[in-house]
Amino acid sequence: MNILVINSGSSSLKFKLFSEKLKVLMSGNAERIGLAGGFVDFQVGEKTERIDKDFSNTEIVLSVVLGKIEASGFSLEDIKKIGHRVVHGGEKFFEPIEVNPSVVTELEKLNELAMLHNPPNIAGIKGCLKLLPNAKNYAVFDTAFHQTIPVESYLYPLPLAFYQKYGIRKYGFHGISHEYVARQAAQNLKKDLSKLNLITCHLGSGCSITAIKNGKSIDTSMGLTPLEGLMMSSRCGDIDPAIPLFLIKKGLTPDQVDNAMNKESGFIGVCGFKDLRDVLSASGIKVEGYKSQINFTEEQKKYSKIALDMFIYRVRKYIASYYLALGGKVNAIVFTAGIGERSLPVRAMITKDLPFKTKFLVVPTNEELAIAEKIV
């Protein structure tokens, strides 16, 4: 029996094929779905290959991926289980669930809570149900790990009817990653996770921080949607909630404001660079193994430094607040994801002169393995 894990996004799709013993047999990453210049990178052992092809939708990508799996010597009939990352499970879905048409219908009702994420996640599920009808499909939810957050943390101070009628509350995201690195941190510390307090920092294109008490999430920076919390590559994170209303009154449409906050804010909004390596380079900080091709202007240098300082300040502020939420007892602060794992200068700035002592760990995340472990 082999297990296929799919992480389907709006313009990208990652996959890993695992054996029953969770050995990676093959992996790949498709980019620019629905755009010109599409491609899929495949890796089997040490061998890599790229297929250049424009993909109009997720199902076409999946058909190419499955074709390549078969051409690499793996039988599609051996794929008995398929795990899918689904960003938003709402209050209904806590555990991994086998997907059938009625479950898909229920998942689609949650689309309005995660318009950028859930529809492509569901597109991946539908594609696999069609192309591999004999395999069992399972949805694994990014929100599940945060179901232990207490009511005083997840409820917003809005009219209670908004929660009761529309489900407006904090759900939290990146839960698959936070749970995985928490378990890995416990192994590194050689302690039982249920006896550990951790602050896990998932810092990448999207960023979130979670407070973990006795192995369970008690608060996290993302909220109703993945927009709340930290400043990110293109997302604004926490802002005055009156700002969107102000902009709408100035003539912007709700869709324009939504697009601005999700795709035109964060690093790219402040300094014009989405890639943190360019932000660091423009700020005069050397990035090991990277040389930016940009000839930075003085204004770009100025605002890159400001953007970097904004990011560091907000991360430190969340860490400090979660230190208090955990009663001043933190066994370790854990860094993961692209920035958290790879950027020593950023980690150094975040942890510099913190007013409390704790261990700092760098733990590579592996969401695909975490999903496979839940459905094996």
How would you summarize this macromolecular structure in one to three sentences?
By secondary structure, the protein is an alpha/beta fold. Helix content is 38%, strand content 21%.
Tell me about this structure:
With 376 residues, this protein is α/β, with parallel strands linked by helices. The protein folds into two domains: 2-141, ATPase, nucleotide binding domain (Nucleotidyltransferase, domain 5, 2-Layer Sandwich); 191-367, Nucleotidyltransferase, domain 5 (2-Layer Sandwich). The chain is built from 14 helices and 13 strands. The chain has helices spanning 58-71, 101-108, 118-131, 151-154, 160-166, 175-189, 242-249, 254-263, 266-271, 276-282, 298-325, 337-342, 344-351, 367-375; strands at residues 2-8, 12-19, 24-31, 39-44, 47-52, 79-86, 97-98, 136-141, 197-203, 207-213, 216-220, 332-336, 359-362. Helix 1 (58-71) packs across helix 3, helix 10 packs across helix 11 and helix 11 crosses helix 13 (344-351). The longest helix is centred in the last third of the chain and has 28 residues, at 298-325. The mean pLDDT is 93.
